[in-house]
Write a structure and sequence with these properties.
- There is one protein chain.
- This protein has 340 residues and is α+β, with helices and mostly antiparallel strands.
- The protein has 2 domains: 79 residues, no CATH class; 231 residues, no CATH class.
- Helices cover 25% and strands 38% of the residues.
- It is built from 10 helices and 14 strands.
- The strands form 3 sheets. Strands 3, 4, 5, 6, 12, 13 and 14 form a 7-stranded antiparallel β-sheet that branches.
- Helix 3 packs antiparallel against helix 4.
- The longest helix has 17 residues.
- It is globular.
- It starts with a helix and ends with a helix.
């Protein structure tokens, strides 16, 4: 390269060169003023730092051919090996960056929630499992009496389920063929639930018209709802290491869906929803250890009760019954532990 050509070199060419490199557009610059071999730079690696770049501009202004050649070679060689490559976001096969998954809060309680469905007359569901499931210790006597009068049946199962519960859950293949054919496992979920945050668990049974009786304080009240669906509102709280309390609130969502005012944290907000009948008298809580399961369903001979509306429905002329199973997987960490 002639010295006269170097003296006519415009520094803006070097600036333009660096701009193309920084914008990750690998472009070959065919400038008649610089050797093409010096311009084949990998656009992924940093071009050079600001200090080296400023010196290069000074060399160009002073018209020093040897210094310029040395600087250009440094950019070409050291720019690819001297500076480490920066970590970038993971690229999906589609070419779009994929964000890392959101991590659950350390104090979150992990629960498994799912339903099983069996014929309402199934012997395993009606009598066999309840001989081995703890019902008396799961709830206070008064609460159990209120729930029993309204058709609910609730039990607590240890982390090592008895044989009949293992059959119910499909953990062993001893279910009779005729019963297995009519058994329908339903989809559930495993979720990290923040302490004190409510989660709705719909039983999936919706009736165009639902009619049943509610017994409270030796009184029987008959209620009728249109487009009624049954929901259990669940809230989990950590008691201590390995122990969790889960609150269940039965609700009946009925009527036409439309924009309604619902209570928020600090105010009211509009939400597309139905009318909600909160059955406060049938509220109950279970204290469970990690690995334990709660079984919630309707009691036998409970037709026409609230529990029957929650868990039983007609399927092509056969009455089917659902069982809600909630298992504590992890109790989470106390707030003071991860706040330090």
């Amino acid at each position: 390269m002639k010295s006269t050509e170097i003296e006519r070199f415009n520094p803006s060419i070097l600036v333009s060169w660096r701009t193309q490199i920084d914008t990750n557009a690998p472009t070959r610059i065919n400038s008649p003023l610089l050797p093409p071999a010096c311009l084949q730079i990998n656009s992924i690696s940093p071009f050079a730092d600001t200090h080296l770049f400023s010196h290069a501009c000074q060399f160009v202004r002073k018209g020093r051919p040897l210094s310029l050649a040395v600087a250009a070679c440094l950019f070409a060689i050291l720019g690819c090996s001297m500076f480490p490559k920066t970590e970038t976001a993971t690229i999906h096969s589609s070419g779009r960056p994929v964000l890392p998954p959101i991590q659950a809060s350390p104090d979150s309680i992990q629960l498994e929630v799912f339903f099983l469905e069996r014929p309402a007359e199934d012997h395993l569901l009606n009598s066999a499992i309840w001989k081995e499931v703890d019902q008396l210790g799961a709830l206070p006597t008064e609460t159990q009496e209120i729930l029993g009068n309204n058709g609910f049946r609730i039990g607590n199962v240890s982390s090592n389920p008895p044989p009949t519960v293992q059959k119910l859950l499909g953990m062993v293949s001893e279910i009779p063929v005729d019963s297995a054919e009519s058994t329908k496992p339903l989809m559930g979920f495993s979720r990290f639930v923040p302490p004190g945050v409510e989660t709705e668990i719909p039983t999936g049974i919706v009736n165009n018209q639902s009619e049943f009786q509610i017994r409270e304080k030796n009184q029987i009240k008959k209620v009728v709802y249109d487009q009624a669906s049954c929901v259990l509102r669940m809230k989990a709280s950590r008691l201590q290491e390995g122990w969790v309390r889960i609150d269940f609130q039965p609700e009946i969502h009925h009527g036409e869906k439309k924009m309604r005012r619902v209570a928020a944290d600090d105010d009211f907000s509009l939400k597309m929803s139905q009318q909600v009948d909160v059955r406060v008298a049938q509220r109950f809580s279970l204290t469970m250890n990690v690995g334990e399961r709660a079984l919630i369903t309707s009691a036998p001979d409970s037709e026409g009760t609230l529990g029957d509306s929650f868990f039983c429905h007609d399927d092509d002329g056969m009455k089917k019954q659902r069982v809600l199973i909630v298992r504590v997987v992890a109790s989470g960490q106390p707030s003071a532990t991860f706040a330090k």
